[in-house]
Amino acid sequence: MKKKLIIGNWKMHLNTHDASVLVHRLHITIPVHRSVEVVLAPSMLSLQPLSLEIDRRQFKLAAQNAYYKDEGAFTGEVSYDMLRDLVHYAIVGHSERRIYFNETLEVVREKTAAAVRNGIVPIVCVGDTSQERSEGESKRVVHDQVTTAVQNLTSEDISNIVIAYEPVWAITTFDGVVAKPSDIQDMLAYIRSIILDLYGAQAAEDMLLLNGGSVNPDTAAGYFSLPDCDGAIVGGASLNYKSFAAIVAAAYQVQHENPDNGGQ
Ligand code: PEP
């Protein structure tokens, strides 16, 4: 029975007060669904207060980033070890971190391993830029990103990671091109085939694969109905409680229509 996973990535938006107001609205608007897991990724500063405010049956928390060493003289950094009691998930390798903060394939690999080591599920983001796409390089780029990220993981570890395909050209704050569901399905199936080659059929079948980039209440159901799409990372639309609730409702609707996916 496979759940759908919906992540709200709030990025560098909302101070602790506004984050708390949004969580209050989401509590009222989003019902608990057994078959849909809803995860909120607020700023680092809001994780602690929100961890005391959220109903954990309704929402789980994710960090947007952390450093891969467990402790040490790394001024300004927070480790996965420090986050382990606060969050279930951590976004790793988001394109904004790769592009604006120069995170290399190797840094993403270290962060993925550090999250797993500390009992946090990494949501490893991979994705091609519009230039890579126009040069026909999309699959090579995604292949390199996926294989490097999982390089140090055992077959046991692999059951504790999630991979999100977020084409950079589809992210609202980059190009914001709405991806065709067929493009997303093609790449998600490709990612599953990489995991199958590396870790076997069961690992590939069990892995949750998400879509990200311009997911909104109008586009969500089209993605959630795809055979290889197990949910989404939602950026801009997650800051509006009505939009985010509508996206979660779309996930529930798709699950409900396909009881094999864990609906009801
Ligand atoms: C993101 O950046 O993770 C994202 C999904 O952004 P948006 O939904 O705003 O395109």
Could you explain the architecture of this structure?
The chain has 264 residues and is α/β, with parallel strands linked by helices. The chain has one domain: TIM Barrel, CATH 3.20.20. It has 12 helices and 8 strands. An 8-stranded parallel barrel has the order 1-2-3-4-5-6-7-8, surrounded by 5 helices. Strand 7 (208-212), helix 11 (220-224) and strand 8 form a beta-alpha-beta unit. Helix 7 (138-149) packs across helix 9 (181-199). The chain is globular. The mean pLDDT is 95. The site of phosphoenolpyruvate (PEP) has 13 residues, from strand 8.
List keywords for this structure.
about 260 residues; alpha/beta; 8-stranded parallel β-barrel; globular; binds phosphoenolpyruvate
